[in-house]
């Protein structure tokens, strides 16, 4: 089985997806922007062939794919900007899988909401805008507060909550580089994910994670240590509405085989509202959290699903799993870490991994990466202790930079 995998080494979690493809017996051919020497040993060992080409250049990517001289059975991509490109290549080569029209439904946030809404599912009130005047007009019609975000964005980048016309003007100034945006109702409630691996539209694995706090709030305040909590029991009655919503979204958008990552809201009155969905895996180490929850390898199981349309892992949900991201105080290089030794002495047996930047390392731009200046992952069978450990890490472990 020959698989063409676009961007086999970036974002970083793609390294494990590439390895997963090789693990299930696929011959993996990769295309990415950088030279082969930048791929790293895991990716290089997993690949049967590699070409360097600019993925933003459709013709260059097509030429690179043809240069392998093999007949591909699958074309896969889990990096958001190139999901449509992978679908385009499938159609060019006559390969089964997600069509270009279906991929657009997962990428274009307005088209996405239109298709979900047409299926009778609750979505935020929304509109597409190309100019500042269109944004202003839609904002007045929808009513404040509103959210302004890129039509083809990923995560919370270039996304703004606007409570007034004055705040809208600030957001317009910060999104001048964005060609078109979605203007939508701000839904006040808790925010969750619904993640799946599907085979022919049927979820063979699903997950629910809880954002603490909501990503937009976390991306707006540097002092926050954002948390994402994978819930051990995604099928509990309190989450049933979100699961049913997610299943309806998959049907509405014509999901076939692969990973999906959806975000949804639960309002105080119990109403559930669709947020958005991608035909890709979640970033920010969320797949790692899912693995830690059940001691499985979903990188490999995704590969098994897309290559062989099967899922062999036995999913026994053992733990709630929280990841807590840290942002250093100050600028420059990390100089010291406080509270980590005491935290590990108290909770070390529950820590699945700790990956904080070490002294001497230059701190990262927290606005550009959720991972920020490192993180810890903790897990526990019960939710309350998991949240206690997560909160204590956020409050008592500090990184200082200068």
Largest sheet: 5 strands, antiparallel
Could you report the average pLDDT, rounded to the nearest whole number? Answer: 95
Secondary-structure class: alpha+beta
Low-confidence stretches: none
Description:
β13 and β14 form a beta hairpin. The protein is an alpha+beta fold and 402 residues long. It has four domains: 2-97, Rossmann fold; 103-118 and 188-317, ATP-grasp fold, B domain (D-amino Acid Aminotransferase, Chain A, domain 1, 2-Layer Sandwich), CATH 3.30.470; 125-185, ATP-grasp fold, A domain (Dna Ligase, domain 1), CATH 3.30.1490; 319-402. It has helices spanning 14-23, 41-46, 58-67, 83-93, 100-107, 109-118, 132-142, 165-174, 215-218, 240-253, 286-294, 298-308, 340-347, 383-396, and strands spanning 2-6, 27-32, 47-52, 74-76, 126-129, 146-150, 160-162, 181-185, 190-199, 202-207, 209-212, 227-230, 258-266, 272-278, 320-325, 334-338, 351-354, 375-380, 398-401. The longest helix is centred in the middle third of the chain and has 14 residues, at 240-253.
């Amino acid at each position: 089985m020959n698989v063409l995998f676009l961007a086999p080494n970036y974002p970083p979690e793609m390294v494990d997806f590439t390895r997963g493809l090789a693990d299930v017996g696929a011959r993996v051919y990769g295309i990415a922007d950088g030279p082969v020497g930048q791929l790293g040993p895991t990716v290089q060992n997993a690949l049967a062939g590699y070409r360097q080409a600019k993925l933003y250049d459709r013709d260059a990517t097509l030429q690179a794919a043809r240069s392998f001289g093999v007949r591909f059975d699958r074309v896969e991509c889990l990096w958001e900007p190139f999901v449509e490109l992978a679908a385009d290549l499938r159609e060019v080569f006559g390969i089964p899988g997600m069509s270009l029209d279906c991929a657009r439904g997962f990428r274009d946030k307005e088209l996405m909401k239109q298709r979900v809404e047409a299926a009778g599912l609750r979505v935020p009130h929304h509109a597409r805008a190309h100019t500042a005047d269109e944004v202003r007009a839609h904002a007045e019609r929808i009513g404040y507060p509103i959210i302004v975000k890129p039509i083809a964005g990923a995560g919370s980048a270039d996304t703004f909550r606007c409570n007034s016309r004055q705040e809208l003007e600030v957001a317009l100034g910060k999104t001048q580089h964005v060609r078109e945006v979605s203007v939508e109702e701000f839904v006040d409630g808790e925010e969750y994910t619904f993640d799946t691996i599907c085979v022919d539209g049927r979820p063979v694995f699903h997950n629910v994670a809880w954002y603490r706090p909501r990503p937009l709030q976390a991306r707006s305040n540097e002092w926050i240590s954002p948390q994402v909590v994978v819930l051990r029991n995604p099928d509990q009655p309190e989450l049933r509405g979100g699961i049913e919503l997610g299943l309806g979204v998959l049907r509405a958008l014509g999901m076939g085989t692969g990973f999906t990552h959806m975000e949804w809201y639960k309002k105080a009155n119990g109403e559930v509202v669709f947020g958005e969905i991608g035909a890709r895996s979640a970033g920010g180490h969320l797949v790692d959290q899912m693995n830690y929850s059940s001691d499985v390898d979903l990188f490999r199981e995704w590969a098994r699903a897309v290559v062989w349309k099967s899922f062999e892992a036995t999913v026994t949900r053992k733990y709630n799993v929280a990841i807590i991201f840290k942002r250093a105080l100050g600028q420059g290089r990390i100089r010291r870490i406080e509270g980590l030794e005491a935290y590990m002495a108290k909770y070390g047996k529950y820590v699945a991994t700790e990956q904080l930047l070490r002294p001497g390392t230059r701190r990262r731009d927290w606005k550009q990466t959720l991972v920020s200046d490192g993180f810890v992952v903790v897990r526990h069978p019960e939710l309350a202790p998991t949240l206690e450990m997560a909160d204590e890490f956020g409050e008592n472990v500090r990184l200082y930079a200068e």
